[in-house]
Design goal:
By secondary structure, this protein is mainly alpha-helical. 37% of the residues lie in helices and 5% in strands. It has five helices and two strands. α3 packs antiparallel against α5. The longest helix is centred in the first third of the chain and has 15 residues.
């Protein structure tokens, strides 16, 4: 559990510093310090024959990395519609929101800023509302 506390704290630090373009885990299952993304059957005490055998990825580690992809950039004020935190609300924000909705997970991306209808989730409706705001068919979002 101490390792997972460290992993979560480290990912929080990376998100706070707006560092989303790095990986720190080894893919190699024999990595001494973190064990790698893949599981393996090697055990130096009772199964020395499993050295170099890669099994399925460690789902807990993958889930943690996927959750990192969804973290908001550096904490700050919520600016509904400005999903990439570039201080403008434009068609790129609408496109990034649509990409997030279909599972592409763009970066940088703020889910707080993308939820412009404040229903607690980012949907294609949010992307359409941001696009309407950009072209002038909407003067404000329902929540702020």
């Amino acid at each position: 559990t101490v390792d997972w506390q460290w992993q979560n704290a480290f990912l929080d630090y990376l998100a706070y510093e707006n560092i989303f373009d790095t990986i720190y885990w080894s893919i190699n299952p024999e990595s001494y310090s973190v064990g790698g993304i893949y599981n393996h059957v090697y055990n130096p005490l009772n199964n020395t024959g499993g050295w170099g055998t890669w099994e399925v990825p460690d789902q807990r580690k993958l889930d943690l990395l996927y959750s990192f992809r969804n973290k908001d950039p550096r904490p700050g004020p919520v600016v509904r519609g400005d999903v990439n935190s570039d201080d403008t609300i434009d068609i790129v924000d609408a496109l990034l929101t649509a990409q997030y909705y279909v599972g592409l997970y763009p970066h940088p991306f703020s889910t707080r800023n993308a939820d412009v209808d404040c229903d607690g989730s980012v949907t294609i409706v949010d992307a359409l509302l941001i696009a309407r705001y950009y072209v002038g068919n909407l003067s404000s979002f329902t929540c702020s």
